[in-house]
Amino acid sequence: MPSKVFSAATLGLHSLPIEVEVDMSPGLHSFNIVGLPDTAVNESKERVSFAVKNSGASPPHHTNRRIIVNLAPADLKKEGPAYDLPIAVAYLLASQQLVSSDIENKVFLGELSLEGKLRPVSGILPAALMAKEKGFKQIFVPKANAAEAALINEIEVFGLDSLEQLILHLEEKEKIEPQPKTEIFFLENNEETDFDFAFVKGQEHAKRALEIAAAGHHNILMAGPPGAGKTLLAKTLPTILPALSFDEALEITKIFSIAGRLNTQNPVIFNRPFRSPHHTASAAALVGGGNHPKPGEITLAHRGVLFLDELPEFRRDVLEALRQPLEEGVITVSRASASLDFPAQFMLVAAMNPCPCGFATDPVKQCFCSPAQISRYRRRISGPLLDRIDLHLEIPPIKYDKLTSEKTGEESKEVRQRVEKARQIQGQRFKNENIRTNSEMKLPQLKKYCQVDSAGQEILKTAVNNLHLSARAYHRMLKLGRTIADLAGSERILASHLAEALQYRPREDNL
């Protein structure tokens, strides 16, 4: 008698229901898995056999029968060890060693050890979301994943230590209590950190630019000599970003769950991500990909910060791969087997030296680079990529009196209050627009929310004519002016707001 239980497969950032069917027939012993399994799924035959034996049941390799496991739909690639548990349950049902009613309302996920213990797996949160949407009543997962699955309401979550424990529960001999719902009580940016705006000496111009970038989710590039504080400023930026909403926290947690990067002790991402890949990273590592596409650094930085230090040292093809997601907020990874969309609404923060030796803009130290070397170095970053960056900053060296001053600047929590107020204004403005921040505005929103008076029009006209701004740079300047107006509490974009936005455009000799 064939048996069927349900599991889940991850496709991009979503899960699909998988039917795990097992049937047995007389004949020479064989144990086969069909339905496009990868190596990890095929190897589950051995894990399942010994886990069943060590759980007190008769294992597949002790039977003189042909055993077939079918994972449907058959045209979807099945990956990873999470199918161990559903295969074991389906085998026990097919061999009539387990009798359980209402098995069709349950979803099973988990990797089995040889002794029958459950090990954690990735992708539990999207699987629990799928189970809720498809009308399943219960989901059974490893104990270490239970708190993650319990983020989803309206479905019972059972955390398992072993296969034997599950058998006793399904036979109603020893009931397992459902996992209590995981509540997110406190979503304020309260992560302990060694970075704070108050610790940054001088650089008031740069701190103002970071405040604007945080308020409108704008991209920023900092250029200056070594030791001027570019990396410190970038690492301080997360301390002024607004707290995550519940929906944002769930969205980011889902991404990290699929990537297998969640902490099982604390399965919720409370703070905005800050990703800082090394300049040797490949294009696939940065934007996502692989034979079976997985999210890359830009998706892991979704709703947070992607910091690229030593920007010109990244390979040209890696940087060019950022152009489309910077514009669209999503990355489409296409392979022969599938085309997947990963969210990539990240804030790009980049840092670079002005020349190979680093001292071209230093007022004291001498630069030994030739004009040709400086030109080649700066041309590693293409014009189209630079055009997608809203704020271009020159970071000067810090003078001694600033460095040794006992006076401290504003603390991050004070700046964050202004940023959150500006974000609240944007949230109210875009409540019916399906966007969250000024940087996400498209042409219809620009026409609606970025009206400029005659004085402002003159500034824009001068900027376009004298700086030869592209249409994209013109629109980004409007978005930046809108953010500066929000920080000032102004309903209209004034000429002073556009004048400040204009100073963050790069000079021609810096391109």
Structure characterization notes:
With 511 residues, the protein is of the alpha/beta class. The chain folds into three domains: 168 residues, 2-Layer Sandwich (Ribosomal Protein S5, domain 2); 238 residues, P-loop containing nucleotide triphosphate hydrolases (Rossmann fold, 3-Layer(aba) Sandwich), CATH 3.40.50.300; 71 residues, Helicase, Ruva Protein, domain 3 (Orthogonal Bundle), CATH 1.10.8. The chain is built from 21 helices and 16 strands. The strands form five sheets. The protein has a five-stranded parallel beta sheet with strand order 11-12-15-10-16. It has a four-stranded mixed beta sheet with strand order 1-2-4-3. A three-stranded parallel beta sheet has the order 5-8-9, with helices on both faces. α5 links the parallel β8 and β9. The longest helix is centred in the last third of the chain and has 18 residues. The radius of gyration is 28 Å and the shape is elongated. About 1% of the residues have low confidence.
Number of strands: 16
What CATH calls the topology of the largest domain is Rossmann fold
Distance between the termini: 72 Å
Describe the main β-sheet briefly. Answer: 5 strands, parallel
Kindly state the mean pLDDT as a whole number? 91
The geometry reads as elongated
The number of domains: 3
Q: Please identify the top-level CATH class of the largest domain.
A: Alpha Beta
**How do the strands of the widest beta sheet line up side by side?**
11-12-15-10-16
| Alpha-carbon Rg, integer | 28 Å
